[in-house]
Design a protein that fits this description.
about 220 residues, mainly alpha, Four Helix Bundle (Hemerythrin (Met), subunit A), two-stranded antiparallel ribbon, 10 helices, about 60% helix, about 5% strand, globular
Length: about 220
């Protein structure tokens, strides 16, 4: 584990979510479009989740495999490397990526809890629509950016474990039945949402970090010549 280092109404949710997340712009406090600090390349990962509807055992296996692979990638890095800017085009560090993961897991947990209480579920978050994902992701970045690496890692572990505990408490029917929870919409199940915020998000993060590691190696090799 890395701690050792220290509701939409139609079937286009996955596509619309990914398209919004990959726009190469964000909006500043004055409503102006500026260069997006959010990482791109998530569309394929979101699309591949749609309709998977993994039952509990398969969902937990997928999460475990991707988390293990992410941990192996992170184990290659020092604490200093994990806080170095530049992993994404927008300047995020590995720490910022982990903060992004944990915040989306928290939002997923919040959606589920609000639904059980019979409250309005705001997806992705209150005050944001799916068209606002670049702005939301930048807000998440600002929220966590000044936190210590240790606190982000601890929080990431906690949210991962909370998500696993929720999945373990549910039946296959709870996870994979369409319409079981009204907030999930007609095309995605709870399993799809949970997989998107865990296994698929871990894969996205790992690939992003691995590409950065390869760039760093090429740069060092070039500098040494």
């Amino acid at each position: 584990m890395i701690s050792s280092l220290l509701a939409p109404r139609n079937g286009g949710l996955a596509k619309r979510w990914a398209q919004a997340a990959t726009r190469k712009w964000k909006i500043d406090s004055n409503g102006n479009r500026i260069s997006c600090g959010c990482p791109t390349g998530t569309e394929r990962l979101w699309r591949q989740d749609m309709g998977r509807r993994l039952p509990k055992a398969e969902l937990l296996k997928a999460i475990g495999q991707e988390r293990s692979a992410l941990d192996k990638t992170l184990a290659q890095l020092t604490a200093r490397q994990m806080t170095r800017a530049g992993v994404t085009k927008g300047g995020w560090s590995v720490k910022d990526i982990l903060a992004h993961l944990l915040e989306w897991q928290q939002m997923n947990l919040d959606w589920y809890a609000a639904g059980l209480r019979g409250e309005t579920v705001y997806i992705p978050a209150k005050g944001y629509t799916l068209r606002d994902l670049p702005r939301l992701n930048q807000m998440i970045y600002r929220k966590h950016h000044r936190r210590s690496l240790k606190s982000v890692i601890e929080d990431f572990e906690e949210h991962h474990n909370k998500t696993l505990a929720l999945i373990d408490s549910l039946s296959d029917a709870d996870l994979t039945s369409l319409g079981r929870y009204s907030w999930t919409g007609p095309s995605w199940t709870l399993s799809d949402y949970l997989r998107a915020s865990t296994a698929a998000h871990y894969l996205w993060a790992r690939q992003l970090i691995q590409r950065w590691i390869r760039r760093e190696v090429r740069w060092r090799n070039g500098a040494a010549k």
